[in-house]
Design a protein that fits this description.
Distance between the termini: 21 Å
Oligomer: single chain
Number of domains: 1
Order of helices and strands: HHEHEHEHEHEHEHEHEH
Radius of gyration: 17 Å
Structural class: alpha/beta
Helix content: 25-40%
CATH superfamily: Aldolase class I
Number of helices: 10
Low-confidence stretches: none
Shape: globular
Largest sheet: 8 strands, parallel, barrel
Strand order of the largest sheet: 1-2-3-4-5-6-7-8
CATH class: Alpha Beta
Number of strands: 8
CATH architecture: Alpha-Beta Barrel
CATH topology: TIM Barrel
Length: 305
């Protein structure tokens, strides 16, 4: 039996297969913490990557938003060959790395920050490139205004799963409407869509954290997550509404809401100011879901262990 992810050193984690990594997350019983960061903007701490910053604050794995597999770039990363970008980052942070891919069109993106590029489209070619660069997980989702819908997510899951089999973990869903009025608020997902994601090959289903999207209560999120678990999959509650830049009391409330809803993975978004959540909120969230022992252990553990 695998150990819990929250108790493992990176020298152990990096040897795991995708399915073994999923098992370590499940064994952590709702104490796995993912932090997202925008890799294309200037880092909050200037000369180190946002991924390094969130890892130092106790994240178990990092989600890179805006990472382009055809033109790899992470602001603040030391110079290296483009093909080595992800491997160098993993060497620096000692964490698994996830990237976002979006099943949408190149001309989508009403806000210039989120405008699409070829290397960020959710398809088999980009997923294969990501895997070969060392990416451990892919989130199939949508940024603000990019008009990603659930049917497109299902098709992308099928295509990528056919290409990669069990070589990579697929996380699928939306943390906000992504510009779709018909798939916003409590209509962002339903049980038919959840089953569609699972049948297509998703390993983890992402839903909005209760308290972040209008109408998504703890009760609704718990019902969705119970159904996800009944299908043998894991759940991730995600905060993508800029509340990661809120006050720490709000963060703690959202964290406990997600815990009560039954999530396996807690996610905090990338928009404190811009690029990553406020450092104090990352700490507050981690402590709320797993206490100071696991939080400070993750902070203090050498990546060379």
């Amino acid at each position: 039996m695998s150990k819990r992810l929250i108790s493992m050193a990176y020298s152990e984690i990096e040897k795991l297969s995708s399915m073994e990594l999923l098992e370590t997350i499940a064994l952590s019983e709702g104490r796995t913490f993912a932090a997202e960061c925008v890799c294309s903007v200037s880092p909050l701490l200037n000369d180190i990557t946002n991924a390094e910053a969130v890892s130092s604050l106790s994240a178990d794995f990092v989600v890179l938003n805006m990472f382009d597999v055809k033109d790899p770039y992470i602001a603040g990363l030391p110079q290296c060959e483009k093909k080595d970008t992800i491997r160098l980052l993993k060497k620096l942070i000692g964490r698994p790395v996830c990237i976002n891919l979006e099943p949408t069109e190149l001309d989508h993106g009403t806000e210039s920050l989120w405008k699409m590029s070829e290397g960020r489209i959710a398809n088999a070619e980009n997923a294969r490139a990501a895997k070969e660069m060392g990416v451990d997980m892919i989130t199939i989702t949508g940024n603000p205004g990019n008009h990603v819908n659930n049917d497109a997510i299902i098709e992308a899951i099928r295509e990528i799963r056919k290409e990669l089999g069990d070589e990579i973990i697929l996380i699928s869903g939306k943390m906000h409407g992504s510009g779709s009025i018909s798939e916003a608020g409590e209509k962002i997902i339903d049980k038919d869509t959840i089953k569609g994601f699972c049948d297509a090959g998703a390993d983890v289903i992402m839903i909005p954290s209760p308290g972040t999207i209008p109408g998504v209560t703890v009760e609704i999120a718990h019902d969705w997550i119970s159904y996800i678990h009944s299908l043998g999959k894991l759940a991730m509650t995600a905060m993508g509404t800029s509340q990661e830049g809120s006050d720490t009391d709000t963060i703690r409330q959202i964290a406990l809401n997600c815990k009560m809803a039954g999530t396996d993975i807690h996610h905090i978004g990338d928009s404190g100011y811009v690029g990553m959540a406020l450092p104090e909120n990352i700490l507050a969230y981690s402590i709320a879901i797993r206490g100071v022992r696991h939080t400070y252990r993750k902070i203090g553990q050498s990546i060379n262990r």
